[in-house]
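For the sake of clarity, the format in which proteins appear in this thesis is described at this point. The fold follows as a row of integers, each naming the local backbone shape at the matching residue. One such record is shown here in full, so that the layout can be seen directly:
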Amino acid sequence: MAKNLKTYAVLTIMVLGLVFMGIGCTGTQNSEGSSPVNETSSVGTTAAETTAAEAQGIFLKGSDTVLPLAQAEAEDFMTAYPEKSVTVTGGGSGVGIAALIDGEVDIATASREMKAEEIEAAKAKGIDPVEHSIAIDGISVIVNPDNTVSELTFDQLRGIYNGSISNWKDVGGKDESIVVLSRDTSSGTYEYFKEDVLLGDEYRKDALIQPATGGIVSEVTQNPSAIGYIGVAYLDESVKALNLDAGNGSEAPSPENIISGKYPLSRPLYFYTNGEPSGLTKEFLDYVMSEKGQSIVSEVGYFPMNK
């Protein structure tokens, strides 16, 4: 009887041992078998999701002039392809180009050509800037609607901005000081205006610098003595666009005059990519240059590229 009890006890211990070993093995498989599979699956899924997100999303940054156009194009593109993402921000042409050079964006938007030193800096970082003209823009010189001046010659406009003309009476207006507004140095419009209007002269030192086009519109709306320059897409009834005479007669910044070249302040707008675009970047650029995309150019207030 004692022998049977001893045998029974041994068997019981063995069975319990096997049970605990089974539990231990099961636990080991869950923590070292199943968990690594789950972890790999989790990591794999996250990586796949990240890759998919990168593949389906692109980033644009730069010109405030191009901003309303790029936003409209992006919204329409994402309506057509809701699984894809296009993020657009402003800040100025220089800001966008710097972001492209640093590899932070897929597309830099610009209202001027890249400078030689910017291209050199890009190539030093392994970036190959490729220029794409996407639309035509006109630069409007604006004043408050109460201002009696309706047109300026290029010489007068240059004098106002380089500081040699400081009173509206000197250009046919009221006897009051001119408040000159300008974009900041990061703006492509700033660079374009300096080159084509100031002919290399420096902006007058008392010019009020605005970080965005909206600031110029707002200030001119509130100040009857102010003058500024903006892209035609920003024109509204709160300001008055001046006719300009570059020596061939006074011309208004109308669509017809800008497209024909009669209006003296017109220029291309650009996308810059790192090398020839591919993937979603190419899809979006192709969309912008398509018949639909170029119709959006007109809707926003710019002018489509001639094909």
